[in-house]
UniProtKB/TrEMBL annotation:
Tree of life domain: Eukaryota
SUPFAM superfamilies to which the protein is assigned, alphabetical: Cytochrome P450, Heme-dependent peroxidases
Stored PROSITE patterns: PEROXIDASE_3
Protein name: Heme peroxidase
Any Pfam family matching the protein: An_peroxidase
Signal peptide start and end residues: 1-21
Primary localization class, coarse: secreted
Keywords per UniProt: Glycoprotein, Secreted, Signal
Subcellular location: Secreted
Region (Disordered): 1110-1149
Amino acid sequence: MRPKLALLLALASSSAPTARALDTRYHATQNRKGEFVADTGKPVEVEASEHYHFSEWFHNIVKNDRVGDAGLKDLFLGGHVPQKASFDMLRDSLNLTGWASATPNPPKSGPPRGVLHHWDALEAKKLFEYLEFPLDETCITDKASWWYRTYDGSCNWLKAGEAGQGRYGQAKSRDFDQHYYADGISEPRQGPNARAVSNAFFKRNATLYYEHTPLLLGLIEFIIHDVTWSQDSTTEFVDVPMPGDETEFAPNTTLRVWRAMAAPGTGTSPQNPRENINHATTWIDVSSLYGSTRSVGEALRTKVGGRLKTQEVLGGTTWNAPEAKSTPYLPFDTVGVPVRSPPGIDPGKLFAGGDPRTNEDWVMLAVHSLLLREHNRLAGILADKRPDMDDEQLYQTTRLLMSAKFQLIGNAYQMAYFEKSMPWPQDDGFPLFREIRGKDWMQMNPANTYPWPLAMKHGRPTVVSAEMAVVYRFHEFIVNTFPIVSASGATLHNQSLFDTGFDAHGFIGAGLENILRGVVSTTIPNFKSGVDESFRSAGKYRGSPFDIVTWSIVHEREQGLPTFNNYFRAYNKQKPHVPVPIRERFEDFTTDPAHLAALKKLYKTPDEVDLVVGCQLDETMFPATSVPKSSLIVSLFNLISMGNADRFSVGYAAMRCWLVDKPWDCHPSNALEDLLWKPVEKEGFPNFRFYDDFWMEELDFQAHGQNLLWRLVTENTDISCLQQHPLFPADPKTNPILCVQPPTQVSWAVIGSTATEVTLSLAATHCAAIIVTALVLVATVLLAKYVKAREDGYPRVLQGWPILGEGYAFQKDAKAVLLKGLNTLGSRAGPSKAFGMHLGPQTHYLLSQPEDLQMMLDDNPYSVHFNLDRFFAGLGAPIFLGKDVFSINLHATLIRTHLANPATVRQFGPTIAAAAERYLRDFPLAPANGKPLCHQTLSSYMDRFSASVSARCMLGADADLHPELIDLFLKFNTTVETVMRLSSVLPPFLNFIPKLQIHKSYKAFSKIFLPIIQRRRVDPSSGGPDGQDGLLDFMPFILEAVDDDDLASNLVAISVWIGLRNLQVSVTSTLLDMINVPGLADRVADSLKSATLNTLDTFSFAPLSTANGANGASSAKGTNGKASNGKSNGSSNGSANGHAGSLGIPSIPGSGGGTAGSPWALLRSAVLESIRLCGTATGPARIIAATKPLPLRSDPTVRLPPGKVATLSTYYTHRQTSSFGPDAAQYRADRFVDSSPGIGSVRNISFGLQGPRICPGQWYVQEAICIMVQQLLAQYTFAPTRTGMGDADKYIYHAGVVTRNEVPVNVVRRK
C-alpha cells in the first residue's frame, strides 16, 4: 500500500469513536471551564491482580479442593489452575485426555425425531435432574418459563407444588415464623404512641458523620422497591394522635397510617394469622424497571429489538445547563401502568415504571433512568451480536443480563459498608456469610451448585421477609438537600429531596447528568444519625401529614412482627457465629441517658421495645462493618441470602459448566448461562463451551463487578469523568476521578488535502486501472442488489394465476395444492420444508416442522411474531362478529370464562342429553318397527342434529319453540363461510357486500331472540311450558355480560355458530369413522352400558401409570377386534398406543396417559381420533406480525416476510409417523385410551396451539359429541354399504372446510 493512502486510511479510522474500555481510563484534570477532562498523559495504572480477581479466586478453590465433590483438580493439566489467567488461558489449561467418550451421543439442541411434543419438559428434566426433586409441570412444559425469568417471578424455584415461591402476590415470609398480634390473629400489636417513639429516638442528631454519596441512597431505595411492596389497604388504618411533647405538628394533627393489604384467606384464627401480600417479585431481578406482572411488563416494551419505551427529550433546561443532546428518559405514564401519586396529580404527568413508587424522589429516579438506558444499550449490543434473536429473545436475555449486572452492583453496594478491618476477601460477595457462619473464606465460597443450602429456609429459597421489609429502610441516609451540578462543576441549585417527590417534569428540567453530578459530589449521613425532619415531620406527603418513622413503627405492629428481644431470641436459637445479646434491662439497649430515660418512660419492659427501635439504638457494629449488628442481620444478610437463592444468579451461571456439567459437555439451563458459556469448536467435543470473553468483560466478572457502577454512569450519560467508586466521595488518593478515553481530534482540513493529493497521484499513474476498478465496483453493487432481491431468504411460493394465485384451486381441492407445494417446493427447501402459496391477495407460508410450530406456540401468549386477531380481521371477522365484539374479543372471552370451567361444562351435560333425546325422538333415523331405512348420506341429518343441540344449549328451552332456528343457524353458518371466503379476496372498499348478508341474518335472528332476551332479563328461569326445566344454558352468561339487547341477540347467534362450526364435522366424522370399522360401533356401545353423565369429564385424563382402567378391555383390542401387539402398534417408534411414558415423552398437563379410567374411555378416545383426522388442509394461521423478516427455528437462513400469513397444516401435522407411529394416517379408535392426545402441543393442533388463543369451547364440544354419539349408538345400528374406507377416500378438502365422502347407510332402530 502506498504511504499516502495508508496515511489517509489511518486518519479516517482514528476519527471513529473508541470503546470505553477499563484499560484505557485516564486520571482527570480540569480545563479552563472547570470541567473534568481526561489527562491523556496520565493513564490509570491498574495492578495486574485487579484484572484477575475471578481467576485468582478460582485458582485457590481448585488448589484447596473447596468445591465439594466436583473434583476440579482432575480437570486441569497438572491438577492446578494457572495464576493470573485470562479466560483463554483457563480454557487451554484443561486436561481433555480421557473425556472424549463421556458423551458419545450428546443431546441435541432440539427435539429428536419421534419426540415432538413435551420437548421443553423433557429438556428441563434432563437439565435439572441433578436437583433430585420433581419439577413443577406448570413451569417446565413451556421453555420460556424456565429458560427466562417470568414477569411475576414464578418458576424460579422449580420444585413441584412450590413454583410460586418468590412470586408477585404471595404472602411475605416471616424469618422465624413469628406472629405477635394483639389478639393472636390480626389486631395490631400494642405499643406506646408511635410518634412519641419517633420523637424520642429518631430525631436528627446535632453532630453527623458522613461516609457515602447519595447514590447509595438511590441504590438502596431501588433495591428495596425491587424486592418488596406492601400495597395499602383501602379500608383499614391506624390513627396516631400527637403526643403531649409534640413540637413540630399542631396538637390536633393525626397521622393516619394505612395498614398493609392482608393476604386473602388469612387472619381467621391463631392457627391462620394475618399475612401481608408482597406486590413485587422477591428476586433481585430489576422488577422495579420491568414490572412484576405481565400487563405492566408488556406495557413498558417497544416490542422492537428487545428495547424498553423511552422519550427522547433535552434535559437540564431549568437552570440553563442543558444536556449536550436529547437523551432517553422514562416515558410518561400514557401506557396505563399503576402509578402511586398524591391527590390532584395527573398520573399521565408522571413517569411510567415497573414499580408504582417510581416517582418518589429524583435520586432513585436517577438510578432508574440509568438502568433503563443500560437495558436499551445492552439490547442493542445483543442484537448486533446475535442477529438470530427476535424481540422476545432479545428482551428476555437482556433482562437476565441486567439482573446479573445488578446483582454484581449489589455486591459493590455490600462492600460500601466494609471497614478496612474486614478479614475476609471482600470482592466475591461472601464475607458476611463467612462472618456469621464462622467459616474461613476457603470453606465458604460461591463455588456451589444451585440450590445452595445456606441460602435456603425450610427447604425453600430465601425470599423477602416481613421483618426485612420494615427494617431495611435506612431512613437515616436521607438528606435534606442535594446540589444540582453543571458540567463545569458549578452548583446550579440546592434541591430539597422531599420536594422532588412526584415531579417528573422537574426531573427532566434539572437533567439526569446534572442530578448525577450533584449526587456523586456530596455526602449522606451515616448510620445512627437520626432522620431528617423533612421526612420525619412532613407537612404534607401524598395529601396528608407524614412521619416516615411513625410509618415504620406502625407497620411493624400492624403486621404482627416480633419485638426486638423476641426476634433475636429466635435468631440466637440458630446458633450463629455472631449472636445478638438479649436486652434483659433497658440499660442494655443504650448508653445514652436521654434515650434510656425515654425507654423507661415509653415501655413497660425491655421485651416490649419495638424491633426498629432496638435496631436504631444498637451501639454494636457488625464485625468489620459500619452497620449496627442487629440492622445488618435483619436486612442485608437477608438480602444477600435472597440473591444467592436465585436460580438465575450470575454466580450459578458462571459455575454451571464446572459443577453440574463440564466445559466439554456443557448444557446451559437458562439464557444467561447460554450467553456466558459460548460454543467452542473442539474436535471430538460437540458440546464444548467456555466463557465468552465479551460478555464476561461486559459483566466485569474478573473484577467481581467492582467497576460496574462507574461504567453504568459513563456508558449511559455524557458524564465522562467520575470517581472510581461512585458510592464514596472523590478523593485524590483513595478514590480518584477517572475519565474515559476521549475521542481523537481529527483535522478535516488535513484529511481533505491528503485525500486530494492521494487521488491526483493515483489518477496520474493508474488511470486505466481506476476506470476498470470503478466499473467492476458498479457491476458488483448491481449484482449484489440483484442477488439480494432474488435471495431474500423467503421460502419459495406457488404463484398460480395472476391475482387469484392458487386461490381457485385451493377452494376446489385444498389438499392437492398443499401436497403440490410440499412435493415441489417443500422438498427442496432444506430442513424447514417451508413454502408459500398465493391465495388471492395474500401469501400463506406453510410451516410443517416441529421447531417452527413450537416457535408459534411459544409466541401464543404474546402475539409478538404471529397475530391471530389480524388474521381473523383479514377473514372478515369484524364483519360477521361485529366491530365491537371483535375488538374486545367478547365472544371468546365469554366462552373461555364459562366453557373452560369443568363444573360449568359438566352442568351442560344434562342439557345436551335432553336436547339430543328430544331431537332423536322428534326426528327418528329409522322407524320403530325395526325395519331398516337407507340414508344416502348422514351429514345433512347430523348437521341438523348439531344445530338443534347447539341452539338448545345456547338459547335455552325457547329453542324448542322455534324449530325454524335450525334452518336459520345452518344458513348463517353457510353465510359466514361465504363471508370468510369473500373477505380473503375482496378489497376493503367492497366489504359492504358481505356486510349486507350478515346484517340480513342478524335481523332474522333478532325477531326471534329479542322477545326471549327481554323476557329472560326479567325472569331468568322463563322459557318453554316448563320453564328451563332446571337445565343450564348460555343465555344468562350473555345477559350478565352485556346490557344492550341487540348486542346480546348477535352474541347468541355468534355463540351458536362457534359451537356449530366445531361440532358439525367432528360429530359426523366420529359416527362415520366408527361405522366404517365393522363391529366397532357395537363395541363402543357395549363399553358405554355403565356410563353416566356424572362419570363424563372431558377435562381429565388418566395418570400415566393408569393402564386398562374401567374400559381397559376395549383398549387392549385393535380396531379390527384382534389383539394388538407392541410391534404392530409401533410403540417403539412413537405410536400413541400404550403409555406415553414408554416413548420417554412426558405427558401434557391435564392430558395424562389418556382417557382410561372411565366407562367413556373408548368413546372419548374415538372422538379425539376422529377430530385428529378430520382437520383442515391448513390452519391454525396467524399474520406474521414481526417488524422485520422472521427467521425460522428449523433453519434460521429461511425467513418469513412481515405482513404475510404463517399457517400450519392440521392434515400434515396429524399424519406424522414421528408423532403417532407408522399407522398415523389410519383411524384407530383406541389410540388415546392409554396415550396422551397431546392437544395444544406441536403434535396435535386440532383446537389450536396451547395458550390463551386455543379454542375455548373444546371441552364443551367433546362433551356434546360424546353424549350425542352415545344416544345414537344406544338407539340405532348402522350398516354402511361399504366399510374399510381409507384415509385418502374419506375426506374432501376445501379452503378451511372438510366434508366427508359418504356411502349409503342402512339404519335400524334397536329394540
